[in-house]
Amino acid sequence: MFTDIEGSTLLVQNHSEVFFEVVDRHFEILRENTVSNGGKVVVVHSDAFFASFDNADDAFLAAVEVQRALSEEDWPDDVVLKVRIGLHTGEVYPVSDTSIGYVGIDVHRAARISEAASGGQILMSSSTMAELDKDKIAEKGSVRFLGSHRLKDLSFPEHLYEVQIAGLSVEFPPIKSIDNHPTNLPKATNSFVGRQNDISAITSLLTSDQRLVTLAGPGGAGKTRLAIETAYRLVPVYGDGVFMVSLGAVAKPSLFLPVVAQALGVPEYRGRTVLEGLTHFMTKRHLLLLVDNFEHLIEAAADLKKLLGICPRLDVLVTTREPLRFAEEVVYPVAPMQLPDATAHEAVSQSDAVQLFAERARAVKRDFVLDERTVPLVANICRRLDGLPLAIELAASRLRILTLAELSGRLDQSLSIIGKAHYDDDQRYTTLSEAISWSYRLLNPDEQRCFARMSVFRGGFSLAAAEHLCGDQTRPDLPVVDILISLCDKSLLTTNTAGGSSRFSILETIRQFALAKLQESGELDSCKDAHAIYYLQFVEQVSPGLVGPDQRRLVGELQMEMDNIRAALGWSLERADFDHICRYLQAVLWYLIPRAQFTEGLMWTDRALAIASGIKGTREFAILNDVAGWFKLISGDYAGAVPNFEVAHEIFKSVGRAEDVARTMITLGATMAATIESDTGPNMVIAALDECKKLEDWHSAGIALIALGEGARGGGDMQSAAECYEEALTLMRRSGDQYWMGALLLNMCHVCISNGDVGAARQYLREAIQLATEFDYTMMINLYVALAGEIALKESNFDDAARLFGAVTTMLHRVGVTFEFADQLEFDKAIELTTAQLGAERYGELHAEGMSWDTTRALAFAHGISHRE
Question: pTM score, two decimals?
Answer without folding.
Answer: 0.71
